[in-house]
Design goal:
With 383 residues, this protein is mainly beta. The protein is built from 2 helices and 24 strands. It is globular. The structure holds 2-acetamido-2-deoxy-beta-D-glucopyranose (6 copies). One 2-acetamido-2-deoxy-beta-D-glucopyranose (NAG) binds next to loops. Belongs to the aldose epimerase family.
Length: 383
Amino acid sequence: MKCSAVFLAALARAAVVLGDSEIPGPGADGRYTISAPGIKAQFIPYGASLTNLFVSDKNGKDIDVVLGYDDTTYYPKDPGHPVYNSIPGRYVNRIGHAQYTLDGKTYKTEDNDGGNTLHSGTNNWSFRFWNVTALAADSITFAISDASNSSLNMLGRVDASVTYSLTNSTWNIKMTATAPDNRTPLMLTQHTYFNLDAYKNPATPLIWDHTLSLPYSKRYLEADQGALPTGKILTAAPGSLNDFASASNLKFGHARNLTGFAGNCGANGACEGYNGYWLVEDAPKDAAVVTLASAFSGVKAQLRTTQPGVVLYSCSWMDGSAPIKSDQGLSAAQKVVKSSCVAIEAQDYPDGINHPEWNRTSYQITGPGQTYNWESSWTFGLV
Ligand SMILES: *[C@@H]1O[C@H](CO)[C@@H](O)[C@H](O)[C@H]1NC(C)=O
Ligand SMILES: *[C@@H]1O[C@H](CO)[C@@H](O)[C@H](O)[C@H]1NC(C)=O
Ligand SMILES: *[C@@H]1O[C@H](CO)[C@@H](O)[C@H](O)[C@H]1NC(C)=O
Ligand SMILES: *[C@@H]1O[C@H](CO)[C@@H](O)[C@H](O)[C@H]1NC(C)=O
Ligand SMILES: *[C@@H]1O[C@H](CO)[C@@H](O)[C@H](O)[C@H]1NC(C)=O
Ligand SMILES: *[C@@H]1O[C@H](CO)[C@@H](O)[C@H](O)[C@H]1NC(C)=O
């Protein structure tokens, strides 16, 4: 929409702070669109989700490298609800055995994931409509206020916001949160799924031919069959199933033919590939800690983050029922098949509230007078 682009550019120049009621609504397609040289991103209030991310491929064509739906009204209805490119909260990932202990008291949380708690429970933030509180040509801010106990025993109100901004082929993500009333578990992530071929590679829709490099991640958390960390921290031998550190040109699927790959992410053999946590250790300040790339499209994506590790999930539970977007793929009939994408989620150690031996508790509990901060960026370029 031409007029809204002009209006947004004017807003950015004026750098005015608007009241809620003055912020323009989304475009006719239901999305808020922001852009900067080399990059364009679109968002919806549901889950504060990214719906589309356009970057340039090796032929100079803009391609959409993240998963999502054409119809923005489908996100809340989607029975599969893969937490598409949204912000889960207030405590992401699993809480082991659906309980945690804080200041000497044990709290039961909702058992919504085979005996554990996933993404906090009923009022998880990826299922909520966030408020848009600021908008400019190259940035957007969403905010959420989460009432005490809105998910079982997540006590005390939490006020959080995420600002997405674009600069020169880079997507910046910055979150802050406060818990003014109570000490509470608080741990956030941005849960984006990538396929850097935009499903246009005629050779394969699968993610395994992408390369993946985590140069500061020799160690990872051992997990049980329910993807819950056992407490053990393991080191991946070069060339082994969970090695992405030993070389910069390892294929994501380099271990595809090794014994154990089919059940490497648990579910008694049913989860193929990856759904685990890699520690980022001894990375120089501002170093890229993850590089995902595809020779087919020529697109390279690099993550920088304040977080001490990342979850890698290789889409084993995508069952082929979800459609791809019309700007992706080779035909309209194409679906999101198993192992055709990867979610890369910078976050603190999963279930760290139940593992004091990891020394992460002070980062995962926030209370009055404190501010939780989370920052990451994805920079796109060519291989
Ligand atoms: C998240 O919240 C929604 C809405 O309350 C609920 O339907 C869904 O089951 C919750 N998800 C999980 C993983 O608990
Ligand atoms: C959005 O703002 C309104 C008005 O301040 C508030 O009532 C509502 O709870 C907010 N929504 C969220 C998700 O925080
Ligand atoms: C939290 O909500 C549950 C119902 O989901 C209720 O049983 C419990 O008493 C509440 N706890 C507090 C501290 O309000
Ligand atoms: C934009 O990014 C490209 C590629 O990383 C770099 O060569 C260029 O200097 C950057 N331009 C600005 C204005 O930062
Ligand atoms: C795995 O085996 C298939 C044939 O079964 C082969 O095409 C593929 O290149 C092998 N992949 C790796 C990473 O060794
Ligand atoms: C936690 O701190 C203790 C004491 O400093 C140290 O021995 C241990 O290695 C730390 N654990 C981790 C996972 O860093």
